[in-house]
Prior knowledge:
Elements: E1 3-7, H1 12-24, E2 27-34, H2 41-52, E3 56-61, H3 96-110, E4 115-117, H4 133-147, E5 152-154, H5 162-171, H6 175-181, H7 198-228
Parallel strand pairs: 1-2, 1-4, 2-3, 4-5
Helix pairs in contact: 1-5, 5-7
Amino acid sequence: MNKAIVVFSGGQDSTTCLLWALKKYDEVETITFDYNQRHKQEIEVAQNIASDLGVSNTVIDVSVINDLTVNALTRSDMDIATNDETGLPNTFVPGRNILFLTLASIAAYQKKANAIVTGVCQTDFSGYPDCRNDFVRSLNNSLALGLDKHIAIETPLMWLNKEQTWELADQLGRLDYVANKTLTCYNGVIGNGCGECPACKLRRRGLNNYLKSKASVSMAQTAINNYLNGGAQ
């Protein structure tokens, strides 16, 4: 039996990955990490979506990471900006995906899952080094050596931009669900979000581009159908 563990935050990307995994795998579970993130309701949203989709969800406390790092993703008193020293957004949590994927691999090993699914993306991302394909592939190899077992890290969004991620949600038949039920906003607003933070702007631009593209395709198809049906001579 093929089984996958989805690293799940309840956001657009991880929810699309969960829907993708439910189509591909016989059994799916989710893991949500509590690291004192800026929008704490993310955990509740993840639990609600997992329950709604009929999958098990486990919340793991990894707040110890905040003893080692200071960033705007876990500190609500920090304005979201670019770190002048690194050039990265100050929402970058150093080592976050190293920790998440390592713990997910341990869980997958114990639960006899043969895959981990994560929504990291190199195409439309904020410059986070732990979202890059080279990093994921390297860590996957290291984990296989350390566990003496290969557990594939699946990254279905790695080469998709936000417009294409919305298209994937639509292909899975859950565009409205992802648009209305997920939480991506840094300010904790479900669905359309606050509209002002970087995450909301990226999400909204992608959705608008996809809907425009979809409308154009629909209009072109209608014109073709009219021609084929004798509407044009």
